[in-house]
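DM from R.C. (forwarded with permission)

"hey, sorry to bug you on a friday — could you get me a structure for this? deadline for the figure draft is monday and I only need the backbone to look sensible"
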Amino acid sequence: MMSHLTLSDRIKIEMCLNEGKKLNEIADEIEKNRSTIGREIRNHLTLVDKGAIYRIKNRCIWRTSCNEHYICKDKPDCTRKCSTCAKCNTNCSKYVEERCKLLNQAPYVCNGCDKQKKCVLMKSYYIAENAEQEYRTTLRESRQGYNMTMSELRQVDDIVSPLLKQGQSIYHIYTTNTNKLPVSASTISRLIKDRQLTATVLDQQRVVKLKLRKSKRPEKKVDRKCRVGRTMEDYRNYIKEHPDVSAVQIDTVIGKIGGKCLLTIIFPKAELMLAFLCNYHTAACISSKFEYLYENLEDDFNSLFQVILTDNGTEFSDPSSIELAPDGSVRTKVFYCDPMASWQKAEVERNHEFIRRILPKGTSFDNLSQKQVNLMMSHINSYKRPSLGGRSPFEMFAFLFGQEMLDKLLHLTCQTTIQPSDIIIKPYLLK
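My reply, with the result:
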């Protein structure tokens, strides 16, 4: 009774729901508690935007009593009521979506409902394959990272790092600060090895000072629950509610494994990309770059970086340090693409092709300087694109955000506009 549900259990649940069986009957069939079945269904719902056959997909709660006309204002000859048009959902300011009341009670889904063919409302289904995939993802993420909050990690860093740099050992630090440290000495050692603290392994006195070996063990997430409330679905809902928001995409470009990397930030509408050299491929390095931008851009940071979309890499597993200003106020919002779905941030991925034409895969970034990176981005951002109507990213950014904002960004990143005939997108640019 205490074991986890298997794929075969989930398939049985889906089949029983399709047959219209109640939760008690399903629980008896797969020999689980009724509350377990209820939680399983509620936790793994799949929303389906599926309307009824030959019926207008208008889900407004006022659709039967509304008498509005000419909401679109692009068809002056239209005489039909707006409530009989599917465009009502997107064009009417009074639109309020109706949700089926039956979804608030068991079995919480539309499986087995005999009104599916006539219903125009948003559907909610339990699909065994989707539920199994979500379960596996949650199980995998729950076993990654460290079992500690960000405030606890900062507390450990504030205590351990200064003392390590004074020449103290981990054992001595842990023994004299047991009541202040929420983790064990071995965990502190792992945090240092995984580069989660300011101190490094070279600050430990008895560590052999050799070049760090490449580790086959994957990097650990800082916050294992970082995706909660920040999924791609949450991102789409937020953009739908705030269509004029300024959204950027971020990613990293890796040189040789274990070496330096590039943090890339792109403004999708202008295709303008910023790049910052990071000594380590860690969340702490990424956060420090955003602190630099926030300190120098001041109020402009909040207008340029209202929303940030990124992937599920461990280097982005500390969203709170990016979202919150030093005083605790919210300065931006971070969202994550679906796992293995880099196409959801296509603009930043596509612009990496320009970087790879100058820094091919396998090239070490260890000898790069930020000055060289700025030069590379100056050439890339001066390159005219057919997707921008023959404009360069610099020109498009000035058009969208204003020349004053562009000048401020260029001054901050030490970039300059390159003449079209002088643009070089080849490796010898940096030699």
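R.C.: lifesaver. The chain has 16 helices and seven strands.
me: no worries. Residues 150-203 form one domain.
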